């Protein structure tokens, strides 16, 4: 109602502004936002009715979203919407509105979870839709209730949590929250439903639950948080419920469904007979929706005992399970039964009887879904009767038991195939024909084929046309005869094909320009290709090889056996030294040529002898300070073996023959400091007398300057001679810099920072307080920076510090407080049915929005709306051009920046 009142008020003001200063007599004046405006009562009613129609139409329209941005907008707005394509979500979504999502067969994948604080419904009207979460907190968390109950209704599709950790399920239900599952598949790697705290309520009446049930320590009485009314499960829900409920002394009533068909509902038994029960669910009388126990076993029927309460006609059979607990099986009252005479009992379903509980009986048996047998037809496969279980496997029934199929596939009966009868031929002239077939199994199955027609001229002067079709591997023919025209034939002798040259069969050239062959007493027409014998292919033998003198190149020559063609192929040559030449023996090198021709590889080898090698003699050399020396030795170039004697009796290595250099020796070095604060050492070698200059290792200890104190750098040079360390130091003062002062200009989600240049500064760093500490955001050489990503209305502490002497002056005493300018709403304007319709984007931190029009050289505020309202519809107005703007009020002030640049014009025709 509030929304319509605001629209009507703004509509009245717009009506006044469109009459170009004239006010009809039936208008009245009223004050609005400090201005005086007029409205027409009939216009109010029309606008209100139009708004109602628009809202009704909007409520029936289903929005389709196909991106994360559209999904985010739809969740925030609420209402019904559908998924148009697979979407990967990157954000965590807190659903505060009432949202209904139709997956429409699409997939939502996310690393986060949905947090429900309003109401969420997930359905899938197409099938195959899925929500997959990799969050450790599961897929859906229904938060504590605030002013309204948070709820999640799951009606279709699949919701899966792949990495949920202990104490978090695919769906987690907090205190005061409600989870209702009526369909779909809920799947988890561990816990499917986690009842987090008392006061939450989970009701499952349909669908498939793959996973366990869990309860927190505070939620000890699990039965109060979980209600099972239907559905299929991979885990027995009863084993996860609180055992405290078993201590109740109330009578437990049974609704019985036997484990097999031999015990049918309504069958009569006598005392002493046995019955077999499988996975029977037992319920408390006063809370029939909560599962208490699952019982299986074979029991003997005793005589009935009578209830001592108000209803003495109600009868029971007491059964005791494997845990020693007793349960009462409800017997339907029957006129034959009384306290003195008992003939038998009758087991009945509890449905429809007084105080009968809702029952999930034989839970796992019901997980077998039957597919009826289907006979095959000509084109479609059939199948034998089979069952599909919740484990995804196939089963069949033998002697009232489910037997797993040996081959895990549907028992298919192949299609029978068509049984085609004799075709009906239809000729068009003499040279075109069609064959029509009808299936003998099903007359509705028909097929018509275009025939291939051939012609033969007989010696008696007739033309015989033969039509041929093939269907399912069977050939069918039909013939037609006509008088042949007068044609003369010229015989063409047969020519054998040769290598690279085509031949031909014996045939006849007709005077009609066509080709014929004579067979079966007549001339049959053939195509030009039918008389040609393709050219024979060349047949090549083994190649001959040709090598150059250096054995580095070779070719393979292939010649056709008919001696009419030669092919030369370049070979790839490789070599391998099989025996190395030494001073004792000759060596051998084997060269191999490889050529590929017509997909086959050919090789040829040539062996070459290498002359003996000679020993090399190396004289002894004494080592120096800077060069290695060596002992006298002999070595073989080809084998790289080294010997201490020319007779090669004592083998050694090059390393044993090498004498390492002695290196320089000295003391008391002189340290020489360079302008770049590096250092050298200088000393005289005591062995060779050479003056040596070498680099010293320099380390630096820095003390950064501030705006009030100088800094310094202490350099330490270190050198090591003959195992002794020598050091020298140098201290450099870094003068304190002038302070850097920051000014700024606010923009949308940003500020332009400017600061003064400081003498001696190497560069500047822009800093801000992040998590309570000053941190460098960026650094550079200029004196300005655009700081982006700021929230409107929020203040930030920033400072700019200089780098002097290679050190940051981390003095934040000249920090500044900055804030971005408010956001500007983005307006969409259109004209429809003589009205101006405005919609604009929400502005964070906005308290109100104002709509203004430019009139008589100034901006006039027509009215304002609360921040939740982001649209406006005018009444019907006169034709003309209007200049308008929408402004936001942030922190108590209207944002009137750049009004003329933000304004838009709209024309009403």
Number of DSSP E strands: 81
**Rg calculated over all Cα atoms:** 50 Å
**SS strand fraction:** over 45%
Individual helix count: 5
How much is the average pLDDT? 77
Shape by Cα distribution: flat
Instruction: Tell me the helix content.
Output: under 10%
Distance between the termini: 31 Å
Task: Note the topology.
Blueprint: H1 2-17, E1 28-32, E2 35-39, H2 41-60, E3 63-65, H3 68-77, E4 79-83, E5 87-89, E6 93-95, E7 98-102, E8 107-110, E9 114-116, E10 119-123, E11 130-133, E12 140-142, E13 151-154, E14 158-161, E15 171-173, E16 178-181, E17 185-195, E18 201-204, E19 208-215, E20 226-228, E21 232-233, E22 252-253, E23 268-269, E24 274-284, E25 291-300, E26 305-306, E27 315-320, E28 326-331, E29 345-346, E30 369-371, E31 382-383, E32 386-388, E33 394-398, E34 401-404, E35 412-413, E36 424-428, E37 432-438, E38 446-450, E39 452-458, E40 462-471, E41 474-483, E42 489-492, E43 503-504, E44 507-510, E45 515-519, E46 522-526, E47 532-533, E48 544-547, E49 554-559, E50 566-570, E51 572-579, E52 587-597, E53 600-610, E54 615-618, E55 629-630, E56 633-636, E57 641-643, E58 651-652, H4 654-657, E59 658-659, E60 670-673, E61 679-684, E62 691-695, E63 697-703, E64 711-721, E65 724-734, E66 742-747, E67 750-755, E68 763-770, E69 773-780, E70 784-788, E71 795-804, E72 807-808, E73 816-819, E74 827-832, E75 835-840, E76 846-855, ...
Parallel strand pairs: 3-4, 4-7, 5-8, 6-9, 7-10, 8-11, 9-12, 10-13, 11-14, 12-15, 13-16, 14-17, 15-17, 16-18, 17-19, 18-20, 19-21
Antiparallel strand pairs: 1-2, 22-24, 23-29, 24-25, 26-27, 27-28, 30-32, 31-35, 32-33, 33-34, 36-37, 37-38, 39-40, 39-46, 40-41, 42-44, 43-47, 44-45, 45-46, 48-49, 49-50, 51-52, 52-53, 54-56, 55-59, 56-57, 57-58, 60-61, 61-62, 63-64, 64-65, 66-67, 67-70, 68-69, 68-71, 71-72, 71-73, 74-75, 75-78, 76-77, ...
Protein name: Fibronectin type III domain protein
Signal peptide: 1-25
Domain Fibronectin type-III: 736-823
